[in-house]
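Following up on my earlier thread - several people asked me to post the actual chain instead of describing it. Fair enough. Here it is, all 419 residues.
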Amino acid sequence: MDRELAPEIVRQSRTKNYLIVFVVLVVAGIAIYFFRRVLKTSVEASRIRTATAEIGPVENSLSATGEVIPAYEQIITSPIRASIRRVLLTPGTQIKPGQAILDLDKSLTLIEFEKMKDQLALKRNSIEQLRMKLNKNLFDAEADDQIKSLNINRLKAELEDARRLLKVGGQTQEDVTRAENNLRIAELEKKKLENDLSYNRQSMGASLKETTLQAQIEEKNLSELDRKLNQANIIADRPGVLTWVNENIGSAVNEGEILAKLADLGSFRIEGSCSDVYADQVKTGLPVIVKVNETNLRGLITQVKPSVKNGVIQFVVQLNDNHHASLRPNMKVEVFVVTSQTAKAVRVANGPAFKGKKNQFVYILNNQGIAQRREVQVGLSNFDYVEIKSGIQPGENVIITDLSEFEHLQEITIDNHAN
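Reply from S.P.:
Thanks for posting it. Predicted structure:
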């Protein structure tokens, strides 16, 4: 005899059947969706972008980043030890030549300047005293030499008298010999005196020259300090914009310490950087394209810095138009270093359809609204254009939108009426 099933068992069986039916329906829906996508052979015209193949130059470039900086930035340093008394201008101020930036307290240096002036005056006075002393010594030595000459003349006369008296018996031979010796001694003393006189002349000239040179050195030091005192009037010598200034009023500054920075915002250059993977390709003299917003500016690499920091190589770009209105200080820009180029090539505007492969498939759109798949060979490329070495002729319309979801289809219909 059959027994009636419990209500719980009936409920569980019914729920299980519903669940199976639901899963089957979901799987069927997903299968239909993907089957329809596989079978889909059309795409809305609003989804695609096309570009016409043309003949023109193509440049191969590598990507880098850059920063716009002023073409020059003048660093103004303190020429003396001083303290900041007043700050006359603030950063961002447009400056004209002759305009004061800072006021320094120069009292300590002025005291040193006056001290050096006194020392120079003393040195000049000592030179005059030395010259007078040397002239006196030279006069005394010359007088002694003249006296010695007169004494020699006297001894010569005495020798002649002794010789005459010897002949008549009025003098002995010893008296003649003594007179001769006295004359010889006097002549030797005169020779010694003349030698001393010559030495004194040279020595006095050297002493005077040495003292004069010392005075000239002190005079140059005084002129240098005077020049530094004039420079301590911190005044702009060219037009520009004040980008930084030491605003610590009352603080002491040493000679050579930076006080202000003045930039010329009328012209700019680019400091670029890229991965050191491209170190062997980035060279001085290579052309560069700098993308500023929607503007492309051209220039040349003028310097490649030798050191590599954190895997980055840095270089400097001189722009052809370094005063373009779009340039702003510290602006970040895209930099493209042109490593090679082709003067005449079949080129197409770059787009997502080109994935960097040398051989790939793209779709060519004909006049009937049919896009046909075609294999092409890609050459040089940059952010604007891609060189087509084979597979596309000038004048053909190339779809540059990524249609990789349709890559299994040889043809695609472009629907111009789809909403």
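The chain has three domains: 42-70+266-415, 75-106+232-263, 108-223. That should answer part of your original question.
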